[in-house]
Specification:
136 residues; alpha+beta; 2 domains; 15% strand; disordered N terminus
Length: 136
Amino acid sequence: MARREKDTGLLSIWQEGSSQGEDGLRFLVERVVQRVLEEEMTAFLGAEAYQRSEDRRGYRNGHKPRVLKTRVGALDLQVPQDRDGRFRTEVFQRYQRSEKALMLAVAEMYVSGVSTRKVKKITEVLCGLEISRSQV
């Protein structure tokens, strides 16, 4: 008997991302993180979107745009919201705009004596992010 696996859509995301060229990895990470955010909201509410259930603990209330700076570039995310405003994602902290590993690497370069202008150039070349000298 052939084993059938549930289609999670990850294969379609992979195929779509591989056709993006240089931005393929950033596109893949962005889509996977977006999928995780939606699944977190579903688990938080206890029901899928538009699903009627007695176990439901709230209702969705749109999305909030958010840019998260990472090592693969800036991710444009749509963070789901609930009506009561109680949903908090575990993907990143509230008001966090940059990946912690990226900021630790920038801090390490600065502590090692690399100039702020060189750190800015390095992050632009490697990550495609613009970090000002004052942020460094």
